[in-house]
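INFO batch 0412 | record 1 of 1 | parsing
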Amino acid sequence: MHANLQDQLDEITANTRHLVQPERLAIGERAVEELFATGVEERILPVGAIAPEFALKDSNGKMVRSADLLALGPLVIKLFRGRWCPYCMTELEAWRDLYGQLREREILMVAMGPQIQRQSDFMAGQHGLPFPVLTDTNNVVAEQFGLVYTVPEYYRDYYLSILVNIPFVNGEKSWRLPLPATYVVNRDGRVAFAEAHADFRVRPEPEEALAAAFAAQSR
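INFO prediction complete | emitting tokens
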């Protein structure tokens, strides 16, 4: 049995606290607290809502349409920040390891983020991701899920100091990112599972979303 995803993420956090000076850590803590205080978690597209349709290119430049995927089965949509985020990559690797179980049950999956196609191509290859990695340019689809926020000015300097240049990775200057989120969409287009956190260090266990996907498939 693999370790719980959250345990793996907590280990990243512990390592970061060990390596990074407290005053620098405080910048990130402030940004998380301020984002949470905006109530962004309460505004995400909820269970029972109709999910936005999308047509986005994958890391190979092939167009992927949600309508085509939902014609085949329920769909897991994993929205991530970027390949620079170790929490996102650990989470996507956990889903990679469960992907066989999804396909056995005829459930489909995509990952979606604002980074340019070249970044996604590199990421999919480096981490052996078997599902499509879609480029959501300018966070257009993530916005329809209610997930988008702007990185505050004081936090941008911190990112740049650790060589995370979000405008370069995303190919546009806005510094907007999606909350990392997990959605399961039934074949009728309705949301069966929805979870996103203002604290990027917190993610749902894949098994929770899988249970919703399996339930959707058995109906």
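INFO post-check: The mean pLDDT is 93.
INFO record closed
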